[in-house]
Give the backbone structure.
Amino acid sequence: MRATIKDIARLAGVSTQTVSNVVNDRPVVGEATRRKVLEACRALSYTPNASARGLVTGSRKVIGLVVPHIGNPAYGDLIATLARIAGAAGYSVVVGDTGWNPEPERTLLSSLIRQSVDGVILASCNDHGSLQMLRDAGVPTVLLYNYFDGCDADLFRIDNFGAFRMVTRHLIALGHRRIGFVRGLMSTVVRTREDGWRSAMTEAGLDVGEDLVSVSTFDQNGGHAAVTALLAQAERPTAVVCTSDIMACGAMDAAADLGLDVPRDLAVTGFDDIFVAAMRRVRLTSLRYDRARLAQQAFDRLLQIVGTPPGHFPGPRQSVALPCELVVRASCGSPAGQDTAATRIRTPKEVARP
Amino acid sequence: MRATIKDIARLAGVSTQTVSNVVNDRPVVGEATRRKVLEACRALSYTPNASARGLVTGSRKVIGLVVPHIGNPAYGDLIATLARIAGAAGYSVVVGDTGWNPEPERTLLSSLIRQSVDGVILASCNDHGSLQMLRDAGVPTVLLYNYFDGCDADLFRIDNFGAFRMVTRHLIALGHRRIGFVRGLMSTVVRTREDGWRSAMTEAGLDVGEDLVSVSTFDQNGGHAAVTALLAQAERPTAVVCTSDIMACGAMDAAADLGLDVPRDLAVTGFDDIFVAAMRRVRLTSLRYDRARLAQQAFDRLLQIVGTPPGHFPGPRQSVALPCELVVRASCGSPAGQDTAATRIRTPKEVARP
DNA sequence: TTGAAAGCGCTAACAG
DNA sequence: CTGTTAGCGCTTTCAA
């Protein structure tokens, strides 16, 4: 059996309280006693029981992080960053992968609630139900990336509209007239991105018919399927804007499978700027944002809420939309993208409404 | 404040024990009582306190998973799979990213120990110290992928030697004579892979001088740097075997930056068969294995140990080496890799010594 | 500066 | 089938 605080107290000849004080680095213990206790801890290889501590303090020092697809390096990087940040603050991170589906999300959340996590960073939330579950359970929550219409939670996201308007405008400036929009299943984020695409298209007087929008799953296979469908039309688009880099990877493959050259026959753009996009063989034009910063902001805010006693005011609700940078590479056919070095184009600076 | 079992008991007019029985689905409660209790739970949106339960039962229903690099899709997929498997068994997964460094690993492990996780799956262990920490703390542990010489823990790994001998043999059969080996920092796994490469080379009477081995970090940048160094030699290798796909991605970039064509001027192979390898633009020859299976086996064994009362025998130590499949694509210059469909070559079947 | 006592919310063992 | 009692290991009063 594992040693308890009592065992240490007995061995060191002090009370359990003193042991607790030493273990928690409370500066109220004499140096000699302190040394004795530490010695006893080492001898019995004592580890405090997290459940017992959590029971008293009311905090488990664990947060949940729910993402749609861990295998996507964009989310992988996010998890790594968040785990590091949280770790530095003494928190562990429990992860869950929803695969973009609502049912696994509910299952995951109820599991996190059952685990009594201190808070949740929800990066895969597309409807009210999930958020409501957390609220009912009284679990502090912040939303990351994904959200839904009329959601009134703290939110840390990308400027989706601006980003997709920017990339679409760029393609239009390059002379494209039929520009497809490739997206995953509908959500507020996806719709906002589509709005950005549509905004750029209509301001240029271009067609935004439904035949230019292709829907599929949010991974390579989805991108492949969506673009294959798009290219099966009589009047093919000459460019496609994809809602993620991994969809764009599938899109490039789809073009290749049809014997089309990217960018000559089809310009392709992505989103997230994962490492694959920068590969010389790929050279995918993408949209970049500061993932680490977004993660940091979301975590800071979560901690702020977690640290607020119930009934008190945890400060004003935060809603941040981080700007994107257009990283122009060869896949969009821009002259600027032909060099080895990518060209960057920035959006207006960060939008934060308190 | 959150409702407790007592609140429910009072509201439902039963004892706390009955509430506990209902909440834990113990089939010893009358239907009427059961219904009343459930009703009260809903009314007060009751969630059991995991710390309190954990304190009594001695289990937090959490396992730790420590990997070297979450941003690598190979590990991302692993995490997703493991999170799903563990979730189905009622366990949450706390993740940590070591970045291949020993110090973060120690920090992470001590954090997991402090959190009193039920067990740890350690996929980034390269020395005895880390394992010893967990042992001292009495935390059940299984090793995944990475291990060290003379390690006596349960181990679920790849047949590294066979895999790298196989891919090297393949390159030799294609006529290559100078074949470089690109690896991350030294570890037992890396050394075993190098042994596989060396075995194939020496059996063919080929040079295995140190100038053919290039060392760097385990990511794209590392692959780029290592291959750039390799290609700076007077007598350039005509092929490089990389120890991961993301290193191989960097390797391909390095070749491109030097104006070399892959595979004409340099054949490149990777390991893990991540989605990038299959991209038409990339077509990276790689080594594939059943990640999901490895994850399942590791988790099953961990659960077996966790479920064994202290002092009892948790069954024989397991040591599994899963075989790899060579996935031949264009990057190695094999005629078989020129089609769109990849060719697969298998290694001898699974090696398991109990 | 240290010790004693109470109790966090729950489950296990028993008694009814 | 249900209620009572005890106690998990720790922190938090409060006294000494």
